[in-house]
Amino acid sequence: MNLAADRSTTPGPEVVCLPMFATTRAATATAFGPALAGADLRETYLDLPGHGDSPATCPPTSQALLDTVCAWLDHHVDAPVLLAGASYGAYLAAGIARQRPDLVRGLLLVCPGITIAPASRTLPEHRPPPGPAGWLDDAPTDLRTHLDTALGHRTPTVVATVLAALRSGGPGDDTFQQTLRTGPGYALPDETSDTPYHGPVSVLTGRQDHIVGYADQFHAMRRYPRGTYTVIDSAGHYLPYEQPALLRALTQDWLRRALTPLSPGHITAPRMPDNGGHG
């Protein structure tokens, strides 16, 4: 449970944010911080094991990472907490809601992976509209193909924002990450489970996301009886950096739902009016 964390001191409800694969808590703060600003929350950003400044102290499997995050939550927060994640972080957050719903007050999933195996994902049929000439010129050569696949909002400014996020934070453990990504334990054992989570959920997807797509996420909404689903045009897999204003608006709606107390009888059938026994 030795995870590097940045935690604000705000004495409000706690939101814990999990990062994309191979990124750090600094990148996650850049993604979610503006969307959460002004909400009077205690914001917590974690580095996953083998990522950023967190040591690789668990086996290189997604279940081990999930268990490590749950152990950290058990020892460091007053559960339940709001839980947010992007991409692989959202994949783990959804898994925590399935396996440990007692820890989760509400769930924000941004470009979540639904299935780990790339061949199993439903990806968009159409390529994004072309960006302006030279929009990828400032990206390192080894990242251009990835960014061309991942980005829907294709401008030099978005590229610079994404690159700055990818370069931020601690070094991570490349060997651990590679073993995790290529090993048999990359998929959670309950990945295909439709175990429902009954708390407030928002699922945000990019219409031009050619990494995880947007269709599988819609089909997975059957798991979330209180779920809102949004697909955003001119957004790809780095949606938080591509469409920050929309992310903020949708996050604020999720917070409103997640922080509003439910009436005691919200899951019961409505009572019929008392008509004194007369039909």
Please summarize what this structure is:
Residues 121-140 are annotated as: Disordered. It comes from Micromonospora lupini str. Lupac 08. The chain is an alpha/beta fold and 279 residues long.
Sequence of strands across the biggest β-sheet: 1-3-2-4-5-6-7
Helicity range of the residues?
25-40%
CATH architecture: 3-Layer(aba) Sandwich
| Arithmetic mean of pLDDT | 93
CATH homologous superfamily annotation:
Alpha/Beta hydrolase fold, catalytic domain
- Terminal CA distance: 62 Å
Measured by DSSP, the beta-strand proportion falls in 5-15%
Major sheet: size, sense and barrel closure?
7 strands, mixed
Total discrete domains: 1
CATH class group:
Alpha Beta
Query: Radius of gyration over alpha carbons?
Result: 19 Å
Figure out the total of helices: 9
**Helical/strand content category:** alpha/beta
Instruction: List the secondary-structure elements in sequence, H or E.
Output: EEHEHEHEHHHEHEHH
Please mark out the parts with pLDDT under 50 across 5 or more consecutive residues, or reply none.
Answer: 263-279
Number of E-type strands: 7
Region (Disordered): 121-140
Organism: Micromonospora lupini str. Lupac 08
Pfam families: Abhydrolase_6
GO molecular function, one term: catalytic activity
